[in-house]
Amino acid sequence: MDEDDLFKEAMEGVEPLRGEAPRNPERPPHRSSPGELERRKAAAEHRRNRVDPNFLTLGEVPPMGPYDLLEWKKDGVQNGVYRKLRLGRYDVEARLDLHRKTVKEARVEMFRFLQTSLDLGVRTLLISHGKGEKSDTPGRLKSYVGQWLLQVPQVIAFHSAQPRHGGYGAVYALLKKTEEKREETREQHGLKGVRT
């Protein structure tokens, strides 16, 4: 008889134990060291922190043509304020040029620009996106910029720029006033103590 036959004869009638996983008697169960547990915890925290804070979409957006007008105002924005923005009569306080940027690059630049503008209390922005008329997908970046502006709650109005500021290839955006700017306006107009 060879070894296989002897083994089969010895194992005849033996059944595996129920409810327990088979164990390897030569290898004890693995217990994580405190260092391993700390490294796992740090890796999980790192993965959680890698969530992109940039909420501007990269998904498909409604397409706009190179000569379509970008225009929108939030309910409650006075017509006179919107008209002044539309006519380019506010001083441009910050500018962003997105020419020759991919949509992904422009998204990052736009998010940073808006965050910085909000942090600094800037109110009137000029964003140059180009018309994209010679592009394979005309107006693509323009379409994204319009959609991104709609996604930012602090943007209260925007409109395609006047020719002197880039015309259909640029857009004015108006940000909500900070509390400090509101206070300045109240003082300027003699409304100190009156909430607007």
Protein described:
It is elongated and about 105 Å long. The protein has a 5-stranded mixed sheet, with helices on both faces. The protein contains 6 helices and 5 strands, in the order H-H-E-H-E-H-E-H-E-E-H. It has a domain at 71-186: Ribosomal Protein S8, Chain: A, domain 1, CATH 3.30.1370.110. Helix content is 37%, strand content 12%. Strand 2, helix 4 (103-120) and strand 3 form a beta-alpha-beta unit. The protein has 196 residues and is α+β, with helices and mostly antiparallel strands.
* Largest sheet features: 5 strands, mixed
CATH architecture title of the domain at 71-186: 2-Layer Sandwich
Which sequence of strands runs across the widest sheet? 1-4-5-3-2
Principal-axis shape equals elongated
- What's the tally of helices? 6
Order of helices and strands: HHEHEHEHEEH
CATH topology of the domain at 71-186: Ribosomal Protein S8, Chain: A, domain 1
Strand content: 5-15%
User: What would you report as the Rg, rounded to the nearest angstrom?
Assistant: 31 Å
What is the overall pLDDT average? 86
Our measurement of the CA-to-CA distance between the termini, rounded to an integer number of angstroms, reads: 101 Å
Number of DSSP strands? Answer: 5
Low-confidence stretches: none
